[in-house]
Write a structure and sequence with these properties.
binds zinc ion; TatD-like; hydrolase; TIM Barrel; about 40% helix; metal-binding; alpha/beta; single chain; about 280 residues
Length: about 280
């Protein structure tokens, strides 16, 4: 019924109980989980997880926080592995890629180079992208335009109405997750309530960005609780409330949007589509 369009299921936080976490998500109605990679060193892990669970698909890419130390050899490895897996329907995107201008100590020019080169790989193989956009909305968008990539998801989107509109008009979907469950997240909730419904997909970013109900302290501790892909069902309940529509209708819309952003998900409609 629900698709978690962004979940780091390979993270060490799940080493002790990964199968139970996935089973609980499926039991909660989560029929599709998208696993982005973060570095060449975890490409094998996300691929193996996606091949080991019919509800999971994967993406390959180098995350902005993993760019220190990454270089041409990593881009070559990415390109080679994408080429080798291009006929694998479970490879649905290039990601997680983007720019992070919030975390200190990252070289902006180096990040931008790796991001742009990965956009070119996405374009070359006609794959959508999973974007990490943190204090970098305008810069991530500028390279999307420049390279000409028009399909994918800007995950955990947090920007102005104007920035959101630009992404949506360019063809991108915006991912909403745990942040939207906090009543103090006024701008994110405004976007979630007011954007065209066609612009929205749901995600968890598990194990990060736990929803309000998993957080001890609604005023800053939300990143400390472990999030799981099953929580996308609760995010969906909040979204249905913000939009004033029923969950079943929302599920159909969210499925359609996820397939529009990540067309290869459509291959798995018999497993993942709401019914
Ligand atoms: Zn991210
Ligand atoms: Zn992520």
């Amino acid at each position: 019924m629900w698709i978690d369009t962004h979940c780091h299921l390979d993270a060490s936080e799940f080493d002790a109980d990964r199968d139970a976490v996935t089973a609980a998500a499926v039991a909660a109605g989560v029929t599709g989980i998208v696993l982005p990679a973060v570095a060449v060193s975890n490409f094998g892990a996300v691929r193996a997880l996606a091949h080991g669970n019919r509800h999971c698909v994967y993406a390959l890419g180098i995350h902005p926080l993993c760019t220190p130390g990454a270089g041409q050899a990593d881009l070559d490895a990415l390109r080679q592995q994408v080429a080798a897996s291009i006929d694998d329907p479970r490879l649905v995107a290039i990601g997680e890629i983007g720019l992070d201008f919030f975390v200190p100590g990252l070289d902006a020019a180096h990040q931008t180079w790796l991001y742009t080169e990965q956009l070119k790989i996405a374009r070359e193989f006609d794959l959508p992208v999973l974007l990490h956009v943190r204090k970098s909305q305008d810069q991530v968008y500028a390279q999307l335009r420049r390279v000409g990539v028009r399909q994918g998801i800007a995950h955990a989107f947090n920007g102005s109405n104007e920035q959101a509109r630009r992404y949506v008009e360019h063809g991108m979907k915006l991912g909403f997750g745990g942040n939207v469950t906090f009543s103090r997240a006024k701008q994110i909730r405004r976007l979630a309530a007011g954007l065209p419904i066609e612009a929205i997909v749901l995600e968890t970013d598990a194990p990060d960005i736990a929803p309000a109900w998993l957080s001890d302290d609604q005023f800053g501790e939300q990143h400390k609780a472990r999030n799981t892909p099953g929580e996308v069902a609760g995010v969906a309940r909040v979204m249905a409330g913000l939009r004033g529509i029923g969950e079943r209708e929302l599920a159909d819309l969210m499925w359609r949007n996820a397939v529009a952003a990540l067309p290869r998900l459509g291959t798995f409609a018999d497993i993942m589509a709401p019914r």
